[in-house]
Specification:
Helix content is 49%, strand content 10%. Helix 3 runs antiparallel to helix 4, helix 4 packs across helix 14 and helix 5 packs antiparallel against helix 11. The longest helix is centred in the C-terminal third of the chain and has 18 residues. It is globular and about 50 Å long. The protein binds a DNA duplex (13 and 12 nucleotides) through helix 6, helix 9, helix 11 and helix 12.
DNA sequence: TTCCAGGTGCATA
DNA sequence: TATGCACATGGA
């Protein structure tokens, strides 16, 4: 993709391969603020990026240019990925066309782990509110916003503190997992293969197969993962198998990863965004 | 009022 | 290994 890195900003020239609405509203990230149809604030860990549309470009303003260059996955060729996916079937063709500006973000492990534990049996609006309250309660004050808390900062909160922030039954999960990660170097997880990583993640409280897939995909770039949630279940039943027999999420994951292989993670995001937006429009 | 949301833990067979 | 149910919370 054509882009240019300057001192405190990144200029994106290809607005078809980078669309902040598609990138931020496809469910992979919860900490962003929409200013209007094209402009957003994006928060990751303790860092901030301001995205603005300017004529035929997007400007990413930030003090952390190198960080966000990697965060937004700017060196991956999404045209090639979309073309390959579009060749598999008509639904994927429609989905890649609909969310043409999606990119898979490279997010921070701890923030992703906690965020997707909170996502369980929850809706995106409420997840965003809970995470925002967690940041305000125990994150670092960065002046105009709060960072996502470190494991040490989050460990200062009791189960009751977390419940008061609206975590519900997930409060116990977040509490336990934070404690068990206090003296663990999450960077060592980058060395694991997908199978090893998923096994480690599923050993943490509040993380099952679906949440583990999300973390492996969004924080560790494991593109052979395919998180199956209620939306993907709808996608599968609508477009891939209209038979009436019950199919388990495990079976759906198996079938879809067989189709999409190492592009599974990308395929999942296009399909999720496509189905969710379409249903919200109707 | 009931249903649903980016599911998981636990008991049971 | 697979299935059924409880689990907080708030918006539709």
């Amino acid at each position: 993709m054509k882009y240019q890195v300057q001192k405190d900003k990144i200029v994106i020239f290809d607005t078809k391969e980078f669309n902040p609405k598609h990138i931020l509203e496809c469910g992979q990230i919860f900490r962003y603020k929409k200013l209007n149809d094209t402009d957003y604030m994006v928060f990751s860990d303790d860092k901030l990026a301001n995205i603005k549309k300017q004529e035929n470009t997007y400007i990413i303003q930030t003090k952390n240019v190198d960080y966000f260059q990697h965060f937004f996955d700017l060196n991956t060729d999404y045209n090639a990925i979309k073309n390959q996916l579009a060749n598999t079937n008509q639904t994927m063709k429609d989905a890649t066309n609909f969310g043409e500006g999606i990119r898979l973000l490279n997010q921070q492990p701890f923030e992703t782990i906690i965020s997707f534990i909170i996502s369980a049996n929850n809706n995106i609006k409420r997840i965003q509110g809970i995470i925002e309250r967690i940041c305000q309660k125990c994150g670092t004050d960065m002046g105009t916003y709060f960072s996502f808390p470190s494991p040490q900062q989050l460990a200062s909160q009791s189960v009751d503190d977390l419940r008061a922030l609206g975590l519900g039954f997930r409060a116990e999960y977040v509490y336990q997992t934070t404690k068990s990660l206090l003296n663990y170097d999450l960077n060592t997880l980058y060395q694991k293969n997908t199978e090893q990583l998923l096994e480690f993640l599923c050993g943490l409280k509040g993380i099952g197969p679906k949440v583990a897939d999300c973390i492996a995909l969004f924080a560790f770039g494991k593109m052979d993962c395919f998180p199956v949630d209620t939306w993907i279940e709808k996608v599968y039943k609508t477009y891939f198998d209209s038979a009436t027999e019950q199919v388990s999420r495990k079976q759906i994951r198996q079938k879809l990863t067989n189709i999409f292989g190492n592009l599974s993670g990308y395929a999942q995001q296009y399909l999720f965004y496509y189905k969710r937006e379409l249903d919200h429009l109707s």
